[in-house]
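ugh ok so i messed up the first submission bc i forgot one of the chains. this is the corrected input, ALL of the components this time, i swear. 713 residues overall. if the numbers dont match what u have on ur side tell me asap before i send this to the collaborators (the ones from the other lab, u know who)
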Amino acid sequence: MDQPVLVIEAGKGERQYWRDILRYRELFYFLAWRDVLVRYKQTVIGIAWALVRPFLTMVVFTVVFGKLAKLPSEGVPYPLLTFAALLPWQFFSNALTESSGSLITNANMITKIYFPRLVIPTSAVVVSFIDFLISFVIFVGLMVWYRFIPPATVFFLPVFAFLSFGAAMGAGLWLAALTVKYRDFRYIVPFIVQFGLYVSPVGFSSSIVPGKYQLLYSLNPMVGIIDCFRWSMLGSIAFPFTSFSLAVVIVALMNVTGIIYFRKTERAFADII
Amino acid sequence: MAASAITVENLGKRYIIGHQSRTRGSYVALRDVISDAGRNFGRRLLHPLQHAESGGLERDEFWALREVGFEIGEGERLGIIGGNGAGKSTLLKLLSRIVEPSTGRITIKGRVASLLEVGTGFHPELTGRENVYLNGAILGMARAEIRRKFDEIVAFAEVERFLDTPVKRYSSGMYVRLAFAVAAHLEPEILIVDEVLAVGDAAFQKKCLGKMEQVGREGRTVLFVSHNMSAIEQLCDRCLFIRKGRLDLDSRDVRSVINCYLFGQAQEGLTSEWKNSGAEFENPWFKPLRVFLAGAGGEPRGNPFRNDDEMWLCVEGEVTELDDRLAVAYSIFNEDNLKLYETATHDVLPGSLSRLRPGRCIVRTRIPSRFLNEGDFRISVAVFRHFKGFVCDFQDPSVPSVSLVIRGGLSDSPNWVQKRTGVIAPEFPWVVEQQSVPAA
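and heres the new structure output, hopefully the right one now
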């Protein structure tokens, strides 16, 4: 008989873990599909919420930063400047919020059924990624409105989308695992998101940050990601090499340590959740 | 013997119970971690010579399961029984990889599907159809596999008409049926089921049992935890009894394991014997010394009784002075403290107790078989002299009492294996008479 043999031993991670992830790959899809379906049930405008929120945020940022504070706009219409940043930022902040609470929300499943727990926070990120793709519709609308033709660098966009996915995953894994153990993180996460909005160049251009603080400022991986979005979609700045490389390194680091920490604590999830 | 599907060696699961977290739920708050660290630091500062203690939280170890070992052959249907908190569910959780063992090792051959709860992962907002796919995926089925079995699942659950209704509008019966149907159509080599039959109506329970039996007949291994002893007896060909985290019994004689479990359970708290502590109910006519339950032949025995067992109530007393009006009586109460009936010696045998002679004697009476329902009963014994007053009275809180526990043996019919509603559950004869035959 060539049935798979599974050995469960105290204190040892299972060797089959990554094979299981492969076996449960459809669960990624189903959980994301469930959350998307459920999210807009019994709402009047449904999926349009994915458009309304970023649109209104863009309007507010344009008025506050562009019109009232009169910040520089890198030579493009201010709504475009803001929206190119809002795309990755809203994805990141939604993904972070959703994935950090995802294990608690699905506690019932975790205590009753086995599957690789990594599926849950990942699916939460995927759901936010779908919203992210939907909100591109607004960007297209803005380009038509302003008769703006994006530069050829726009074809690099998938690379940066992937990078922002990585940033959301890495931070999401950490926070998801930490929230299971320390419920304090339920209160910390909204704060991180709020705080992050001010230290990332969402409503303004990175150019207004004084030169001597640029390096410190770029330690926030969202700085590199947002600047790269602007570079590829608007062509308004030169390629932000330093902040991009920093972002890549930090995202990679967050993912590696995130997965290690998640795997380490995962085995006890059902006991402590 | 067939090849083994599951081998369990020296399995243990330990939980640390922090006293603080016991009052606030099981998770740790960051605040506690920080304040404990601070407190330890302070203590070390104040008492530098003392050893640092292992943390400010007082810790208690609790072994939910300890040194459990067994082997299950392919195609065996194993029942697992034990009281609440004995560790049955922990064992199933370990086997289904939900929690990690603290000691030992499990080797599993084949794909495992575990059904620890009906409808896990069901989302109330989604329709029946959507939930079948979702639940299937959670249980580890591929989409193609679910699609192939979809009609079969729906037919089994009998919810065809409501497939596109959100399950939050389902009746609880429909919900459970659909959930079980999905799980029942997994095709694992090993099926682990925890007490899911407690829900759903009798007809559906029967259907579930039938399905599980079929799974077993197809050569798959079934592990089944239940408090429904007749279901275990019907379904399993081997039974484990877990008590306080340890494997107490493991045998192919399912009925004897069940009896052992029920007997042990009955012993805890529900005593089948009352003894006079010495000077209680002092009187010359009949001083009750001992009240006990007995089986056939008057041998004292413990609970539980099967409903078709011979059950005797025996009252041992000491007589110094004869009195014609002496009577011994008992009342029986069910779990709701409802008095079912009362009976006394002078009901049937006027003056028979006058044949008592001074000295020790036993008065006994048979409790009707197949008359009471399954359940726990309290029997209180009263002794009195007719119209002359009580020696001991039912109203007296210290009245001699014993517990009678009846489990199983409700009837010989396969259609009546569970406790019925109603205060009593007597078995009555039925007669069928042919009045006419249709003209040929």
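quick check: The first helix of chain B runs from residue 19 to 24. that seems consistent at least. Chain B has two domains: 63-265, 273-406.
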